[in-house]
Amino acid sequence: MRVVVAMSGGVDSSVVAGLLHEAGHEVIGVTLQLYDHGAATGRKGACCAGQDIHDARRVADRLGISHYVIDAEERFAKAVIGNFADSYAQGETPVPCITCNQTVKFADLSALARDLGAERLATGHYVRRMDGPDGAELHRATDPARDQSWFLFATTRPQLDMCLFPLGGMEDKRTVRDVAQRLGLGVAEKPDSQDICFVPSGAYTDVIAKTRPDALAAGEIVTADGRIVGSHDGIARYTVGQGKRLGSAAVLDGQRQVVVATEPGRRRVVVGPRGTGTHTVQLRDVNWLIPMPAHDLRCAVKLRAREEPRPAIVRTDGITTTVALDDPALPAPGQACVFYLADRVLGGGIITRAAAPALQERLTA
Amino acid sequence: MTEMRYLDANATQPLRPAARDAVMAAFAASGNPSSVHQPGRHVRRIMEDAREVIAARFGGQPQDLVFTSGGTEADAAAIHAMSPGRRLVISAIEHDAVRSAAVGAAVAPVGRDGIVDLAMLEARLADGEASLVCMMLANNETGVIQPVREAAAVCRRHGALLHVDAIQAAGRMPVHLGQLGAHSLAISSHKLGGPAGVGALLLAPDAPFAEALIGGGGQERGRRGGTPSVALIAGFAAAAQASEGDDLVRLAGLRDAAEQAAVACGAVVCGDPAHRLPNTTCLALPNAAAGVQVIALDLEGIAVSAGAACSSGKVQTSHVLQAMGLGALAGQAIRVSLPWNVTPADIDAFVAAYKRVAGRLCPTLAPHAA
Lengths: 365, 370
Prior knowledge:
The complex is a heterodimer. By secondary structure, chain A is an alpha+beta fold. Chain A folds into 3 domains: 2-183, HUPs (Rossmann fold, 3-Layer(aba) Sandwich); 217-273, Adenine nucleotide alpha hydrolases-like domains (SH3 type barrels, Roll); 278-364, Translation factors (Elongation Factor Tu (Ef-tu), domain 3, Beta Barrel), CATH 2.40.30.10. Chain A has helices spanning 11-22, 37-41, 51-63, 73-89, 96-115, 157-162, 173-183, 204-211, 355-364; strands at 2-6, 26-33, 66-71, 120-122, 127-132, 135-140, 163-164, 219-223, 228-232, 251-252, 255-263, 268-273, 278-288, 297-302, 310-316, 321-329, 336-341, 344-351. In chain A, strand 8 and strand 9 (228-232) form a beta hairpin. In chain A, helix 1 packs parallel to helix 3, helix 4 (73-89) packs antiparallel against helix 5 and helix 4 (73-89) crosses helix 8 (204-211). Chain A is globular and about 65 Å long. By secondary structure, chain B is of the alpha/beta class. Chain B has 2 domains: 17-244, Aspartate Aminotransferase, domain 2, CATH 3.40.640; 247-361, Aspartate Aminotransferase, domain 1, CATH 3.90.1150.10. Chain B is built from 13 helices and 14 strands. In chain B, the strands form 4 sheets. In chain B, strands 2-8-7-6-5-3-4 form a 7-stranded mixed beta sheet, sandwiched between helices. In chain B, strands 9-10-14 form a 3-stranded antiparallel beta sheet. In chain B, 54% of the residues are buried. Chains A and B meet through strand 3 of A and helix 11 and strand 13 of B.
């Protein structure tokens, strides 16, 4: 069959292309040009394409498959980078990889695959797609260290139907590198990509400064009851749960403090004693990978990319979705809350700031 | 690789057999045309014969022809040689070869038909400031032929110089520097069906030449340093000669057949259809991204292009079509450009593939798609 493979130039997606080609499929490699690499790295005269695009083309050359570069710069700038800065300005800590997967990668690439007459879209994500009685299911990867299911909760069911994730069942990364070696792809020992792709320097605040300088303006650090205990240099530098960068507010009354909320309107960072938490999490942009449950859903939820799922009950009426955590936690607005039943992803949503008033209530009660 | 139908001549023409023979024959000779000895004189003769052939083909004098590494260098060398002390004015549809060399240039707009607005050009020059104008003879994306002879008259009236990028026009329409009245002409070998890597700057007898882009050892009468590639130059001349035998009427007939079939599928032709190179058509398919059309056609075995491909291979929206005011269509147009050796079977294959692709990408526009 004809399969479009999203090739980033890294070892994972290269191996996907190689394995599908080896299995006899007609593989069409596609690499998204997401941003001007020359401009992002600030190197004068540097090509708009990074080394990764070159690597993807060379892998396709070695495999003898078709390969194309798609200009997704405008779409990426609007949907991902713009959203990234706006989200920080609204007091959130966004996950741009989720937005990217949701828009540029799965929505746009599955449309492209259909336009090119392909039956499937394959990516190098570490998740497993399984055929269940009600259609395609999304499951965690075999290797827990590599599992990316948290980042893919927003994939829609029709998109999932079309997807292939050949690496989900791989034992570990070494196995994948060994396949790359065996297939002679030339990227077997290429380092893993780091952090946020469009911020190669690592300074994400540079990106925010360009469109939302307000998110980097100085303000006060306060306690939940409004006592001014310090100052900060921009709410975009603070995530709920964070204990660093608090200066004089780091320890109050002998207790270590953490950020419990940010208030973008008043440009304030709210701190509270470490161990503070809430039982209630409000979600937006919820995506279900099962039929929307009519009753309380007992499951486990992950509030951050790297943490163990925690027991909770998810309630939805189709408009608002609320998660009741068994044990209190500090969910960070903008991050994802993903619902699991064992290894299976049931759905998820983005944590809203609506959790903050509930927290205030609890703290001031 | 699938068997391909090559319809991307404006990117590069297939090498003509006569050019290949000339290149191979010249490669057999060793010598540097600057040398005093017999081997040097032998290759020098090959080079000078070629110079005469090419100069005559494009209406100039052999002593005014400077060999370069290609069309881009010819454009850059012309601007470098003639712009000192002059303001630059370029048309809005120039190739990047000119755009990147003409830093800070004023721009003369084009109409929706893709033709440079001469009144606007004249207005740009009306203040009488010494200027160098760059205008292409035929556009690489639309094939639309520009009123260069009239522009030359405007330039001369205002004391301006005119450099003409004739890279796409050469071999596909009469090109005569003297008759155009311009000051210089850029030509590229591989757009004629010669080898890539060689081109020429043909200067009018009255063209000033302030400075060479590459000085080097003073070759080409001090106008372009570096040992010339005699074999490529020989192939260039052979292609220039062979292109005289092309049947341009046949080419236009095949182009029109492809175009009419595409229009029946919902395509819109970009640019003035009455003033075009016989081998080129620019076809916009509303609501279908140009890049996707190119990929889908490639998978069907048809090689065409869209906009200007950057070195990453991504397809960028064409500045030419944007300058024509085509709006969203600018990102939905592909260029079909027939090579000198195109066959009716190539056109049939294109039409069949285009119907399938158009039917898939915008089914509402192509009710008759197979």
